[in-house]
Design goal:
This protein is mainly alpha-helical. 46% of the residues lie in helices and 11% in strands. The structure holds one RNA strand.
RNA sequence: GGCCUCAUCGUCUAACGGUUAGGACGCAGGGUUCUCAUCCCUGUAAUCCGGGUUCGAUUCCCGGUGAGGUCACCA
């Protein structure tokens, strides 16, 4: 049984790289009929952010990546769902203690009473001498009597991993075998002076206890994996398989950061990117399941998912391509769905648009939306005619008299047309027929008509505009234009 | 700096050791068209460098270079 987890810290925001790694966990679990788990790694109390856990839960919910076990929101309250809980590390402090004791007893770990300031001083010295910055193992030389006394005095202390000699290897599904000489590895702190375990300790213990079979995480963890492997060996536990996903990069190839534009996953949803588009895009960033296909349904992504096909090199995020993909997904939506999706953006902008009008506007503007938020501006010219210069009404190959005459002809026809016949297709046929019958030029009729309806040099076609606006408003705007010409 | 990892168009990528090195985004041009958008067509541009192995290397091996990661009582 495959069991994988996303193990985020709730101390910051989730950027799209974190989301992508989570997606790979999700796809891998679903592909193999396994279990996807959310576990919160909040052992750093100083960096706790209020509401961080809730935000993460909502994000996964909003993008439709539902997990089988983990903290879930029930009526606004966090509840632990699953047989391996709790899934929040700060609630598991007692769970880690026996294992730290075990390591201490077996000689794989030791107490360290050095003050943080001392360690800091050591580090700067080592850096100055261009030596590796490692703990000097001073406390390893302590006699058992000295240790006992320090403990009795309740001296501030941590527990460190005693890294043995030799070398450590593990197989990464994406990169193959990775070997590191243990001499390079620092005696990692496992238990902090505040009684909280560090990531390394908590992560290994929880992965074991929660029976995690595959650890799929970001590339930045490769070097610490040695410590994790050592811990599995010392505790006599079966190791999970590892897969380290490449990082996402800025255009200048630096690690993706907030400084160079918005990268928080939530922000993309807030800006009107569809979750499906975002996930499809992230899935293909550094990965290709097969051939030339670009658009995949979630079912396809799951079906085709293969961790070993993930590219090992970092991927620059091509935001233009995300926009393109979002446009594709928007066009695939039905008008009704799109109206529903757009509504929150209008609400947020405090624009209220009559339901039937909005539906017609969305139908027309669908091909012109890059994000859902674009609807907020698009809707303006339908709600209210914006002022325009009367010269705009005149087609480049004609004059004002033509514009006026043609608008009058069209107006008469439209007036005689039933409101129910104001569809794009019918209007197109009627007006084109009118042009043909009177031996007119398309441009000389359609340009003034379109400008009369939109007030813009560039806009949807007059048929689309007329359909969206409806008969009454159309006649009103044409009349206004005719009077404007004078 | 030590260690680890990586390397195909500007970007994301495809290519049993044999292809005119393919696709997508972007960009440019064209078609459709009253304008915009959509849609369609065309073009643009890449195997980091040097050795080896091989009849043959983008592909395998070694070295160099470059890039990224990591070196916390953060995850």
């Amino acid at each position: 049984m495959i069991r994988v987890r996303s193990a985020p810290s709730p101390t910051g925001f989730w950027h799209i790289g974190n989301l992508r790694t989570a997606l790979y966990n999700y796809l891998f679990a679903k592909k193999h009929g396994g279990t996807y788990i959310l576990r919160v790694e909040d052992t750093d109390r100083e960096r706790m952010v209020e509401g961080g856990v809730e935000a993460m839960i909502r994000l996964l919910h909003n993008v439709g990546m539902h997990y089988d076990e983990g903290p879930m929101l029930m009526n606004g309250q966090i509840e632990q769902i699953g047989d391996f809980g709790p899934y929040i590390q700060s609630m598991r402090l007692e769970t880690y203690k026996p294992f730290v004791e075990q390591l201490l007893a077996s000689g794989h770990a030791y107490y360290c009473f050095c003050a943080p300031e001392e360690l800091e001083a050591q580090r700067t010295e080592q850096q100055a001498l261009k030596l590796p910055t490692k703990y000097n193992r001073r406390c390893l030389a302590l006699t058992s009597e000295e240790i006992r006394q320090n403990l009795e005095r309740n001296h501030s202390r941590v527990v460190r991993l005693k890294v043995p000699e030799g070398e450590t290897s593990f197989v990464d599904i994406i990169r193959g075998k990775i070997t590191i000489n243990n001499a390079e590895v620092d005696d990692q702190i496992l238990l902090k002076s505040d009684g909280y375990p560090t990531y390394h300790m908590a992560n290994v213990v929880d992965d074991h206890l929660m029976e995690i079979t595959h650890v799929i995480r970001g590339e930045e963890w490769i070097s610490s994996t040695t410590k994790h492997v050592l811990l599995y060996q010392m505790l006599g536990w079966k190791m999970p398989e590892f897969a380290h996903c490449p990082l996402l990069l800025n255009a200048d190839h630096s690690k993706l950061s907030k400084r160079q534009g918005d990268v928080a996953a939530e922000d993309f949803l807030a800006k009107g990117y569809l979750p499906e588009a975002l996930l499809n895009f992230l899935c293909l960033l550094g990965y290709n399941p097969k051939g030339d296909q670009e658009i995949y349904t979630m079912a396809e992504m799951i079906d085709l998912f293969d961790l070993s096909k993930v590219n090992p090199s970092g991927a620059v995020v091509n935001f233009d391509k995300l926009k393109w993909m979002n446009e594709i997904y928007i066009r695939q939506k039905s008008t009704d769905e799109l109206v529903e999706l757009c509504q929150p953006f209008l609400d947020k902008a405090e624009k209220s648009v009559e339901a039937e009008l909005l539906k017609r506007v969305v139908a027309v503007e669908k091909e012109r939306l890059t994000t859902l938020a674009d609807i907020v501006e698009k809707v303006d010219l339908y709600v209210k005619l914006v002022p325009y210069d009367q010269a705009l009404l005149v087609w480049k190959k004609a004059d004002a008299a033509d514009a006026k005459a043609n608008l009058q002809v069209v107006s008469a026809v439209l007036e005689a047309t039933e409101a129910s016949e104001f569809t794009i297709k019918t209007l197109d046929m009627k007006i084109k027929a009118l042009i043909a019958e009177n031996g007119l030029q398309n441009g000389n009729v359609l340009w003034p008509l379109r400008v009369a309806l939109s007030g813009q040099a560039q806009s949807p076609s007059p048929f689309e505009m007329a359909y969206a606006l409806g008969k009454d408003e159309v006649l009103r705007r044409i009349d206004f234009a005719i009077k404007k010409i004078g």
